[in-house]
Amino acid sequence: MEDRDNRGAEADDASQDDQNADDQNGGGNNKPKKQRRQIKKLKQELREVQKAPPTVVVADVAPRAKMKKRHYGVLLIFLFFVVLPSAGVFWYLQERAADQYASRIGFVVHTEDTSAVTDVLGGAIQLGSGGSKDTDILYEFIRSQQLVSLVDQKLDLRALYSKPQNDPIFSFQQDGTIEDLLDYWSSMVRVYYDVDTQLIELRVQAFDPDDAYNIAQEIFAQSTVLINRLSAVAREDTLRYAREELQTVEDQLKAARQALTRFRNETQIVDPSADVQGQMGLLNTLQAQLAAALIDQDILRDTTRDNDPRMVQAARKIEVIRKRIAEERQTFGLSGDGGGSNSEEFNELLAQFEALTVDREFAEKAWLAARSAYDGAVIEANRQSRYLAAYVGPTRAEKAQYPERIMLWIMTTLVLFLAWSILTLIGYSIKDRR
């Protein structure tokens, strides 16, 4: 309707403009006839358009959507796959799931910084800490079947974890095997291990607060036994090494002393070096006596006649002293003629005695060092260098915090919904490819 009014207004405006143009040009007779006919025709068409009824253009309307069989199938699957299981989980968590209490405990393998270092023949014995390795071993021990068996023997875990009568999902079947108990243990005992700080924290869950407390306390007790055993093994290894070294050095010292004693028994010489010193003193004395005899002989030669009996006696004395000196020199191989067999044998005995003496002195020094190392190892081993220190708990719960019902229900529903969505998309994708 508005379109028709607009076209009529435009036609009137056009007629008015033409009339004005005719008036300005001195009348319509001055225009050509062809132009006047065209204008007349346009005016007629405009009048017809104004008289015609309005035309309304209506867009095509889409048909109303209708539910098909596949849509009902998807909804039915959603109902049975998501809604009903989610409702069942919610009902079970609220009505059947038993309350669980948690006891928390935190501990660390404490290692003292002091250590005993003792030199052994240029080497060293040091009792290492090994704290990081001990913590790793303890972490694996808490999750092991061995600990589960020890705690089960002490507290009867099967009876503790099978207390709920109407909760087959969260409780343990009492007739289960040790492997089943180990799997259940991993869900009830959570171990948190910080590698950087070497701290271990435990969260022990049970259906009774006292049971959770007792389990946490027993885990700490068994862990303490393990750490003490590891420390004892380390101390015994260190003591065994020091003891073996000491025994070896003692055997060497005994062998050196026995060899020296055997030498003395065979040669009947206690200390050849002392004999040498004594005989050297005797040789020096003989040298002094020879010098004095020569001086007396010179004095007698200047004051008496040649046939004086004292001259004969002085010469005889000098000859005896020189003979004795020669014999003593020959005994030690000091004579210029190369010595004899006796001097060679004595030199060999002296060399053998010196070698035995050096071996004995070295064995004595080695024994002193080994003994000092063993005493230091014993002192350090008697001190407890590693032990388990608890910095938290074990705590006793007053309120049940597990299972986390709302969180479990939300997670279950979300997983079911995601599974349903994926299966639905896969089904539609397969249908579209056909």
UniProtKB/TrEMBL annotation:
Biased composition (Acidic residues): 11-21
Compositionally skewed regions (Basic and acidic residues) per UniProt: 1-10
Coiled coil residues, start to end: 239-266
InterPro entries: Bact_polysacc_biosynth/exp
Cellular component GO terms held in the UniProt record: plasma membrane
Residue spans crossing the bilayer: 72-93, 406-428
GO MF entries: protein tyrosine kinase activity
Keyword set, alphabetical order: Coiled coil, Membrane, Transmembrane, Transmembrane helix
Protein name: Sugar transporter
Native organism: Neptunicoccus cionae
Residues covered by region (Disordered): 1-38
